Amino acid sequence: MAEQKTEQVKRMIVRYIREKQLKSGERLPSQDFFRRQFSCGTTTVRAAIDELKNDGVLDVRDKIGVFVIDPNADGHAASVIGICAIYSDTPYYCCLLCALQSHLNRLGCMAHLFFRYKPEPRDDMLYHDVSDYPGLARSVEGKILDGIIHLDDFNDRSLRFLAKAGIPTLSACGLPLSENSVSYDLSDILRRMCVRLKKMNVKRPALVSVKATENHIDPLFLECTGGKGIILSNDAFTNGNLFVKKYMALPEEKRPDLILYLDDILAQSITSQLVFLLPHEKLPGAMILRSRQLRSTFAVQNPVFFNMDLDSFAGLVVSTLMKNVKTGNIRIGRVRYRPEEEPELSLKDEQQNRMETQTKCRRGGIRP
User: Fold this and answer.
1) 355 burial class (0-12, 13-18, 19+ CB within 10 angstroms)?
2) Distance CA 206, CA 33 (A)
3) Other CB atoms within 10 Å distance of the CB of residue 162
4) Are the C-beta atoms of residues 109 and 144 closer than 8 Å to each other?
């Protein structure tokens, strides 16, 4: 308990330095001032100052006072960053959470996870309330957190609450929902996919639509395809059963000849089901937003990939947030991460890939 209180006072002292914009060489108030300011004991204040001295933030001069060395030092282990997410065992969430924690640990920060369990289905699944995450409001009011990363976003009421508390808060997801966000912008990726579609002369493109993003993505897909695109909804990110049923229910002449996937796990589920239901020559093509970390494989010929590096994305999220944690500025702005688009294949490369795919199918006992 004493160690936790010391960590809390360390964070408060660092925040005081930043709020007062103290520079290197400037003197801090007395220990008695901090004792009264933070409602704690002299021993706790002294321990916090000693640790900040060891971290290279403060210089303690006997009988003279305490002075600032580096107000922006990363070496102090004072920053505690909250990460808010829906509780999920999907590979995407697991990989991104691990990557975020890894980048925070490298900077000497501590990560505090807040999960929302069993969210009720509703129209607006991308915006959440602080009260949805047990312990979050208490941590904010207790000044335990220095910054927050949300894997979706907060509603307006919660954003006002966090802004009033002076905590930099960042949304890290597929859409630039709030003014303070780092996103890989699914809207931009979809536009780039549709440009690629036109070059490929695809006649009946389709999009796998999911509830969480349908209001943002579906109208854009129809706009980019001139209204000829087919939207087939699915019931979940990881299970493609509903999509496959809708696809197979279409008359053969109306089935899509290429499908756009903005989720690689869903793409893997759907393609692995279709390959057992259709002759190889009638399998639809695929354009997939793929995570490099998950290393997924797909039962489809010559897929086009847009490659997302979750570790690079997490690094951009953490570095963007920490710049504002240092300064105490809650205005972050919109930052975009741009997934790489694989180059178009030559005819020779396509033929080679087709032969490799057929060989894999035969080895796996799948009808070529």
Assistant:
1) exposed
2) 65
3) 24
4) no
| Alpha carbon 123 to its chain's center | 21
| C-alpha span between 299 and 67 (Å, rounded) | 63
Rounded CA-CA distance 202/90 in Å is: 31
Q: Is 224 helix (H, G, I), strand (E, B) or coil?
A: helix
Average pLDDT over residues 106-133: 78
> At 12, which helix (H) or strand (E)?
helix 2-19
**Distance, CA of 302 to chain centre:** 28
Q: Are 232 and 208 in contact (CB under 8 A)?
A: yes
Q: How many helices (H) and strands (E) does the chain have?
A: 12, 16
> Which among 115, 137, 146 has a CA at the least distance from the CA of 17?
146
**Amino acid 121: pLDDT:** 55
Which residues is 206 bridged to in the sheet?
A: 230, 259
**Selection from 274, 313, 8, 50 nearest residue 181 by Cα:** 313
Question: Counting every residue, how long is the chain?
Answer: 368
**Which of 26, 48, 68 is the last residue before a domain boundary?**
68
Mean pLDDT, residues 66-77 taken together: 69
25 Rama sector, left if φ>0, alpha if ψ -120 to 50, beta otherwise: left
Q: Is residue 219 part of a domain?
A: yes
The predicted pLDDT at position 350 comes to 45
C-alpha 317, offset from chain centre = 8
Average pLDDT over residues 64-91: 78
- Specify if 123 maps to a domain: no
Tokens 């001032």 sit at which residue?
A: 33
| 144 within a domain of the structure (yes/no) | no
pLDDT of 77 reads: 47
Could you give the 3-state DSSP secondary structure of residue 174? Answer: coil
Q: How many domains does the chain have?
A: 2
Average pLDDT over residues 85-91: 82
**CA distance linking residue 219 with residue 290, whole number of Å:** 23
Report the alpha-carbon distance of residue 204 to residue 259 in Å, rounded. 9
Separation of alpha carbons 205 and 123, rounded Å: 26
Which of the residue ranges 13-22, 300-309, 338-347 has the most confident prediction, judged by mean pLDDT? 300-309
The range of the structural domain enclosing residue 28 comes to 2-68
* C-alpha span between 213 and 176 (Å, rounded): 12
